[in-house]
Write a structure and sequence with these properties.
This protein is mostly helical. The protein has 15 helices and 4 strands. It has helices at 3-20, 32-46, 50-57, 65-80, 87-99, 119-132, 137-148, 167-177, 188-204, 214-223, 240-253, 257-269, 275-287, 294-302, 326-338, and strands at residues 28-30, 61-63, 314-318, 321-324. It has a two-stranded antiparallel ribbon. Strand 3 (314-318) and strand 4 form a beta hairpin. Helix 4 packs antiparallel against helix 5 (87-99), helix 4 (65-80) runs parallel beside helix 6 and helix 13 (275-287) packs parallel to helix 15 (326-338). The longest helix has 18 residues, at 3-20.
């Protein structure tokens, strides 16, 4: 067994242990102070019954469905690479993701009703359930319809979904929870993730309410590319994750080789210095038609911990508080190593 194969095996073994323990390293917890402040802002803008204000000001926000979806995506790559022992984990994760649906769609923090449904959770979970063969119309029809109702004329879709059709309320809602251009919730990496999920659903399951909006969203996304070739992120640290999600969608949709070429030139010149972003760069370059660089893969292998994991590099940028996870970093590193020829 060579060093890369050994690293893959140890990474899978670590994720198996995480799975058996219900993914403790993947859980994202928002403290009561932050929850109370967001509830205060929400109540001041939209109103809230006193009982709800009391309940949600003290709510313990814990989310891991989005993170489990990211990890499951890597496990699905592992199965396709011949690691069939990951199959049962995928089935159990898919069942968990289906049951984590919170009403019409998915929330980043399930049960925290003041937090709207979001496009990032819907996109990531759709991708995994489509690949697992468990994406059912009864789970996704209304969720995609809600997302489509939150599309803007420029082709983007709000990160947070407003259930009121009034566009002014949608803007106000995203000002409370969101970020991005003018705080309207137009976030490039979220649009890319959501539309990639919708594209997979359309191709492998059937029509969805977002189908006709994928093309305009791709056009909007290309227009958001920075002159140096990357995409800025609103909810993530750095530019590697956002650029990865963007070129993944462009590659799947087709016809945007110039944008992919600009991204590839940036990624080739701006080498990442940590395993998470190095893995994201490898994956992004793969969608630009560039095979994994063996030196970059060797650096990823060399930074693996003895237990098979990688460092919890900050990934999410949640209103001035960054969050990272050993389990999620391990998922992306595993995915990059599995991309090796």
């Amino acid at each position: 067994m060579n060093s890369l194969d050994d690293a893959v095996s140890r990474a899978i073994a670590y994720l198996v242990r995480q799975h058996d323990a219900a993914y403790p390293d993947a859980a994202h917890v928002m403290g009561a102070y932050s929850a109370a402040k967001f509830v205060e802002l929400y109540a001041a803008r939209f109103g809230m019954p006193a009982a709800y204000l009391h309940k949600f000001s003290r709510f313990r926000c814990e989310g891991k469905a989005f993170q489990i979806a990211l990890i499951t995506d890597a496990l699905q790559d592992a199965v396709e690479a011949g690691h069939g022992d990951c199959g049962p984990l995928i089935e159990e994760n898919a069942a968990y993701l289906r049951t984590s649906k919170d009403g019409r769609s998915w929330r980043y923090f399930p049960g925290f009703a003041p937090l709207p449904y979001d496009g990032d959770s819907l996109g990531a979970i759709a991708q995994v359930l489509v690949r697992a063969g468990h994406a059912l119309p009864e789970d996704f029809d209304d969720a995609f319809a809600l997302a489509a109702a939150n599309a803007w004329e420029d082709g983007s879709v709000s990160t947070f979904f407003c259930e009121d059709p009034d566009p002014h309320r949608r803007t106000a809602l995203n000002k409370v929870w969101g970020r991005g251009r003018d705080d309207t919730g137009r976030d490039a990496e979220v649009v890319a993730n959501l539309m990639f999920g919708a594209l997979l659903y359309e191709r492998h399951v059937g029509p969805c309410a977002l189908g006709s909006l994928i093309g305009p969203a791709v056009t909007w996304l290309v227009q958001r590319q920075q002159p140096m070739g990357f995409w800025r992120a609103s909810w993530y640290v750095g530019v590697y994750y956002s650029t990865y999600t963007a070129v993944r969608l462009l590659h799947a949709y087709g016809g945007h080789g110039q944008a992919a070429g600009r991204a590839a030139r940036f990624l080739a010149q701006a080498r990442a210095s940590d395993p998470l972003n190095r893995a994201l760069a490898v994956l992004a370059l793969g969608h630009c038609g560039h095979p994994p660089d063996r030196h970059e893969l060797a650096l990823i292998v060399g930074s693996q911990f003895p237990d098979g994991s990688w460092e919890a590099i900050p990934l999410l940028d949640n209103h001035a508080r960054v969050w990272g996870s050993r389990a999620v970093t391990t998922g992306f590193c595993l995915k990059a190593l599995l991309a090796a020829p």
